Amino acid sequence: MFIAGFSYDRMRKNLTLVNSNWTRKHIATSYGIKSVCVNPPASGFFPNLPWEERENGFVCIGRIIPWKLFEKIIEIINTVRSEIQNVHLHIIGIIDEHRYYQQLLQQVQTSPWISLHTNISKEELIKLIVRHRYGIHAMKNEPFGIAVAEMVRGGCIVFVPPNGGPMEIVGGDIRLLYETTEEAVRKILHVMKSHDEQVSLRTFLDSRKELFSPENFILSIQQIIKQFSK
């Protein structure tokens, strides 16, 4: 950094944009830098498929790497299935760690209720999202979590850990946050068995969809540039 002439003092004078308030807090703690949060856009057109036409299953999305904790998600949904047998799971991702992928593949091959989709197109991804009622995410302390934003934009009720960007994407709603497998199962079963809770959560998450649209991202950047240019 010395050879490159890097300067923290100069950096602190920059306008720094971050992808979540979680990241903003850590940038301030680590570097003493004030920053502005601008959520990245979950791009694509997400058709508004009626709830009644959606499958009673889950999607989870992410690179096939250990810290995405797909095995925890499988354990959660498998436990949910002990009470609601017709529930299934779609794991969607890009293979980044082949050893972990092989371990995951072995688990999927012995569980007919799990489907594994790798390296699919954005169009195929969106079709899978909007065809299902629920989404789930397990990575802890993720700086943003574009997959969660995609599931929210696709009309899913999404369950996430109580930290990082995913918690912010679902508005910090306690009904959607879980720490342990047992807590996740309890909250998922409560929602799946309650029509009123489903309506309430869908209404709440629908109100957040536009926060992660490309149009909102463009508008936010334009406003920040205007403010910074004054």
Record keyword descriptors for this entry.
2 domains; Rossmann fold; globular; alpha/beta; two-stranded parallel sheet; 230 residues
Molecular structure report:
The chain has 230 residues and is α/β, with parallel strands linked by helices. The protein folds into two domains: 8-42 and 212-229, no CATH class; 51-211, Glycogen Phosphorylase B (Rossmann fold, 3-Layer(aba) Sandwich), CATH 3.40.50.2000. It is 45% helix and 13% strand. It contains ten helices and seven strands. The chain has helices at 8-13, 21-31, 70-80, 98-109, 122-130, 146-153, 164-169, 181-192, 195-206, 214-229, and strands at 17-18, 36-37, 55-61, 89-93, 114-118, 132-136, 157-159. The strands form two sheets. A five-stranded parallel sheet has the order 5-4-3-6-7, with helices on both faces. A two-stranded parallel sheet has the order 1-2. Helix 3 (70-80) crosses helix 8 (181-192). The longest helix has 16 residues, at 214-229. The radius of gyration is 19 Å and the shape is globular. The relative contact order is 0.15. The mean pLDDT is 95.
CA-based gyration radius: 19 Å
Determine the number of helices (DSSP H or I, runs of at least 4 residues).
10
Assign an overall shape: globular
- Specify the CATH homologous superfamily of the largest domain: Glycogen Phosphorylase B
Helix content: 40-55%
The CATH C-level name of the largest domain is: Alpha Beta
Uncertain segments are none
User: Strand percentage, roughly?
Assistant: 5-15%
**Quaternary status of these chains?**
single chain
Distance between the termini: 31 Å
Structural class label: alpha/beta
**Average residue pLDDT:** 95
Secondary-structure arrangement, i.e. CATH architecture of the largest domain: 3-Layer(aba) Sandwich
Number of strands: 7
Largest beta-sheet characterization: 5 strands, parallel
Topology order in helix (H) and strand (E) letters = HEHEEHEHEHEHEHHHH
Number of domains: 2
Strand order of the largest sheet: 5-4-3-6-7
